[in-house]
Amino acid sequence: MNSVPRLVVAAPSSGSGKTTVATGLIAALAARGLAVSPHKVGPDYIDPGYHALAAGRPGRNLDAFMCGPERIAPLFLHGAAGADVAVVEGVMGLFDGASGRGELASTAHVAKLLRAPVVLVVDASSQSRSVAALVHGFASWDPEVRLAGVILNRVASDRHELLLREALEEGSGVPVLGAVRRSAAVATPSRHLGLIPAVERSAEALRAVADMGELVAASVDLDAVLALARTAPPLDATPWDPAAEVERVAGAPRIAVAGGAAFSFSYAENAELLTAAGAEVVPFDPLHADALPADTAGLVIGGGFPELYVRELSANGTLRAAIAAFAASGAPIAAECAGLLYLGRELDGLPMCGVLDTSARMTERLTLGYREAVALTDSPLAPTGTRVRGHEFHRTVCEPGAGERPAWGWRLPTGPHTEGFTGGTLGNVHASYLHLHWGGSPQLAASFAAAAAAYRAG
């Protein structure tokens, strides 16, 4: 049995302020000298970046759709190793999951899998006694979810706070752990796909996280929060071990992983699996590097916001040519979403790497959601027939080029197979819109490491 003090920070809906409160809690507890393990329910890449700044350790995702419910507790224990307390930020509303039927991948589902108490962040603006009815409903909806505290957000004044506390004391029975005043100073700037990644804000992001921590420390009873986290019972699970998921390859192939502001979307477990498979993972920034790292035998380009840096990426012709030559040599390349766009012929009319003959452009239409996928073509990432679960998250349209074969066929969890371009393979290149958490599909890391080892061996 493994025991880690923990709690889940949830909300009735998106936009309630749970990222501000969760990040502030992480920062405030870390400021007390505690080792805080930050986690995020669902596939989101951006919130964990703020969590990592606040905690000083990687922010990790807990996604029951992509990784399976059976892996949630093991992945949590792996990430929380050595921590004094863990803070898990939820996604959307407490009971919102992969579909309208059932709890799969919801914050409530993950809270139950972790046997963790839930703190509900409620946007109290423009209401008083009605908050008690809302909290009562959330507390009674699923008796297996232990809603054990409320943090009131966007409280207008001392008088407003008094009204809210009186109503909740009388009508809900759920204790109030804090009341956070409105503060534009700690708002997390948003963009078309959500919050602006912390990596893009640098010093500004550090200041914002510090402000969140100070605001929460002044507004929330941290001793009560810690006491609540310590009520979480031991978990009957073994920590996830990447070395137990993959076989090691010979030769320690070097795998370059794109990062930086343009390609900031990644899951820590993906790199950990590649390392466990015997590869040497080397990060590099395509915005600034003029060549791939020396002796690169494989290339991974994840998601991000290349459309915001399209001019800089296009201007770096030396690296674009190096990547094109690397692909032409038969080296294995795996790319997701932003990586797909970067490997194409052009993005918004500007030249990219030209590895694939695809043309992409930004649109106003948001495409997002979970996908169940099957590999339609052999590639370094997966042989034909491999089944995975992932998610889409973009506002682009990509026109396929000549010679490419489809990478995945996929469908929504509750719907039919989708139409249109999902990505392609060409030689040893696999590029698609699908974001994947390899913790749920460790065979992908094993396959890619083996392909890199074969390339290195010649």
How would you explain this protein's 3D organization?
The radius of gyration is 23 Å and the shape is elongated. The longest helix is centred in the middle third of the chain and has 17 residues, at 203-219. The mean pLDDT is 93. It starts with 5 loop residues before the first strand and ends with a helix. The chain is 31% helix and 25% strand. Helix 2 crosses helix 8. The strands form four sheets. A seven-stranded parallel beta sheet has the order 3-2-4-1-5-6-7, with helices on both faces. The protein has a seven-stranded mixed beta sheet with strand order 11-10-12-13-21-20-18. Strands 14, 15, 16, 17, 19 and 22 form a six-stranded mixed beta sheet that branches. It has two domains: 6-229, P-loop containing nucleotide triphosphate hydrolases (Rossmann fold), CATH 3.40.50.300; 242-457, 3-Layer(aba) Sandwich (Rossmann fold). It is built from 14 helices and 22 strands. With 458 residues, the protein is an alpha/beta fold.
What is the approximate shape?
elongated
User: What name does the CATH topology of the largest domain carry?
Assistant: Rossmann fold
Largest sheet, described in full?
7 strands, parallel
Number of helices: 14
How far from one another are the termini?
47 Å
Strand line-up in the sheet with most strands: 3-2-4-1-5-6-7
Can you give the mean pLDDT? 93
Low-confidence stretches: none
**Whole-number count of domains:** 2
CATH superfamily of the largest domain: P-loop containing nucleotide triphosphate hydrolases
